[in-house]
Specification:
The chain has 118 residues and is mostly beta strands. The chain has strands at residues 26-37, 43-53, 57-61, 71-79, 85-100, 106-117. A 6-stranded antiparallel beta barrel has the order 1-2-3-6-5-4. The protein is globular, with a radius of gyration of 15 Å.
């Protein structure tokens, strides 16, 4: 299994910046598909977007009703300069944090359990 490292130190240049994460995150907007079991124990598959990414996890938005501790399968890919699908990542992850919205959607922070790149 290949692992990759992403680095973005721009926010760390601020003297007021305090990072609580172990790995830096980069802002992205990548198409993704997430599969899992929602809060009603129903299987789902949803198209969504990766909003930020690190070597240890990512943040997706929107994702319907999942709860912390839920396991998700996430598939996303990087886009080439010509906006074609490039490097693809398939990941098994566990939900760390849920940020719900009034409409039932919201953002989800996950930690990778394992992933593969192609």
């Amino acid at each position: 299994m290949r692992r990759f490292h992403l680095h973005d130190n721009s926010a760390m240049c601020s003297p007021l910046f305090h990072e609580r994460r172990h790995h830096p995150r980069i802002k992205v907007d990548l198409p993704a598909v997430v599969r899992g079991v929602d809060e009603h124990s129903e299987r789902f598959e949803q198209r969504t977007h990766v909003c930020n990414l690190s070597v240890s996890g990512l943040y997706l938005r929107p994702v319907r009703g999942v709860t912390p501790g839920a396991r998700l399968f996430i598939y996303f890919y990087f886009l080439t300069a010509s906006h074609e699908p490039g490097l693809a990542v398939a990941a098994l992850a566990i939900v760390q944090r849920v940020e719900p919205e009034v409409d039932g959607s919201g953002g989800v922070a996950v930690m990778f359990l394992r992933y593969r790149c192609r």
